[in-house]
Amino acid sequence: LFQLSVPLNFIGGVYREVQQAFIDMEAMFGLRDARPKIVDVEGAIEYDPATHGSSIEFDELKFAYDVKDTTPRGKGGVRDGVVDASGDDGGNGRTAAAAGSKAARRPILRGTTFSVPQGKTVAIVGTSGCGKSTLLRLLYRFYSPDSGSIRLGENDISAYTTRSVRRAMAVVPQDVVLFNDTIGYNIRYGDLSATWDDVVDASRKARLHDLILRLPHGYDTVVGERGLKLSGGEKQRVSLARAILKRSPILLCDEPTSSLDSHTESEIMSNLKEVGKDTTCLIIAHRLSTIQDCDVIVVMDGGRVVERGTHDELMSLEGGRYRELVAFQRSHNIEEENTEDATL
Ligand code: ATP
Description:
globular, single chain, six-stranded mixed β-sheet, 12 helices, alpha/beta, about 35% helix, four-stranded antiparallel β-sheet, binds adenosine-5'-triphosphate
């Protein structure tokens, strides 16, 4: 049944495939208005993960948004931030009159340094607005750093064509956009040349297969706005299945914030292991309970990395920031659970 629907779906499919990465990135970062500002350098080479490798190294990255860009969007927008008119405050956090000033820049990354070894999973944590998404936007080349560098494999990221870099990255956003099409197609979309067996395999790895079999028409069930509505966590699993099918060497994942989906969410995290042992994963993590098995946890604050290590290493730091965040979330969750108990 699923295969019957493929030829029809194929029309427009190629176009959609090109669009998909952008849809996901827009969904991930609320970049609906932003256009890539990066032009490839002359003689830029095609990024080939097999040849160049897929480790990622952020080195002393500094980045500021133009203040005129700071219309609040999505969950972002201008917050209580410090604004500096010079474009680089050297981390001193001087305040300048930003509103209306064309030259004003708002420093977000103030010398961020850490690396993601090839095939490892690194989680970035930090308070809202500390620059986690900004870091991934730079990696996806929506912006260039003001100073410092990003190394991808054996070269600086700017040595490659932007297109080839993006092609190597699969994005699992928090709010996945599904097409009004069958769920089978929505998965297969990760690789239109995939066989039926590949699709089922990817959906098993994303823990989606059993759920799909329970749907009224199985893999032929139409989902999306005009079809069956899936929960946020389920949609994210569709996105993960796509990423598995695509076999991207690099996976960027924005973990859901919704506490309602916490069970599904922890499944997503454990499923990342299924993505492939050679896949380099970078995750923006919101719920610390789910990232304990990550190879490295990077804690950001004020645009810099303040701690890094495994969960156990960070938990053993007396007075550490990670410990503080974990304690805060635990007490917060306990409150939530108590509230739930009280209403039951
Ligand atoms: P969250 O956990 O809430 O998603 P985050 O750590 O991912 O936050 P970023 O999205 O990187 O934070 O944003 C860092 C800061 O930069 C925020 O204060 C945000 O308002 C601001 N910001 C984000 N996008 C832009 C933009 N296009 N122009 C100007 N400022 C922006």
